[in-house]
UniProtKB/TrEMBL annotation:
GO terms for cellular component: ATP-binding cassette (ABC) transporter complex. CDD domains: PBP2_ProX_like (cd13606). SUPFAM superfamilies: Periplasmic binding protein-like II (SSF53850). GO terms for molecular function: transmembrane transporter activity. The lineage of its organism: Bacteria, Bacillati, Actinomycetota, Actinomycetes, Pseudonocardiales. Residues 43-303 form the ABC-type glycine betaine transport system substrate-binding domain. This is ABC transporter substrate-binding protein. InterPro entries: ABC_Gly_betaine_transp_sub-bd (IPR007210). It comes from Amycolatopsis balhimycina DSM 5908. It comes from the Bacteria.
Amino acid sequence: MGLIATTAITTAVTTVLLAGCSGGVDSLNQPASGSASNSGGGAITVGTANYTENVVLGYLYAGVLKAKGVTVTVKPNLGSREVIIPALQHGDIDLLPEYQGSLLAYLKPDAKQSSAADVQQALTAALPAGLKVLPYAAAEDADVYAVTKATADKYNLHSLADLAAHNGQLVFGGPAEDQTRYAGIVGLEQVYGARFKEFKALDADGPLTKGALGKGDIDVANLFSTDVDIQRKGWVVLTDPKHLIAAQHIVPLISSAKPNPAVESALAQLNDKLTTDALSQLDSKVDNDKADPDQVAADWLKQEGIVS
C-alpha cells in the first residue's frame, strides 16, 4: 500500500478488523503488544499506521529484530503521519515502516523526485534532526491509478497520458489529500494535462474507493499496487510514462539513536527477502482470509528461513 495516508483511515471496517486481528492499539498511551527477547541489542518500540499492510510490516520488523536478540514491542494502529512522526520524534516509538515517495511528499510537498535512488537521497536530506532512513526493501507499494476494463475500453485508456483526451468527462476518487498533492490531481494536470469532471474524497485504497469504482460512481481510482483486488477484479492500471508517481519502496524510518549492527543487519535481511508480490500476498491473508497480522508475519518469516 503505497502510502501512509496523511489523513487517518477512518472506515469502521478497517479499524475493527485491525484492532481485532492484531491486538492493536489506537493510542500511544495504551499497552503495546508483542514483547520480545531479553537479550542484547537494546530495546526498540515499533509503531505502525492503522491499516493492514503497515501493521504486517511492523510485525515483520519486530520478528527479524527479535531473532537478532533485540527486545521489541509493537504499537500498531496508531493513525496517520500527523500522529506517528511526532511520536517517533518524541521517543514514544523508535521505528516505523515507511514508504519512500509518500514520506518525502509529507516532508517536502513540492518534491518531484521519482526514482528510488533519487527519492532516497532527497529523503535523507529532508528528514528532521534525530531521524534517519535505513536502506530500502525490494518490496514496493506504489500509488496506481486504475479504471475498470469497461471504462478502459470505452475511452481507450492505457496510460495516464490518455486521460487528457477526455477532460471534463471522468470522475476521480481517492483519499482527500489527492486533491492537493503533486502525485494526485495537481500533477495529473501539470504533467499530463488531465482535468476531471469531479473529485470524490473517499479513502486510501479502502472499501469506499474500491466500492465506488466497482459500482461506476467513479471512473478513475487511486489504489495501491499491492492490492490483490486489482488483478482479481480485472481492473486496468494506467501506466505512468512521464514518471509522475514517485518510487514507494518500503523503508525503515528510525530514531537516529537506535541503529546498531544487530538492528541494521536484521532489517537488511528482511529487505533482501521481501518482494512486492510477497507483500501483496501477506496483505491478502489478513484482509481476505481474516488471519491475524502478527501470525501472518511470523509464519512468513519462518517460511523464508529468516527466523527459526
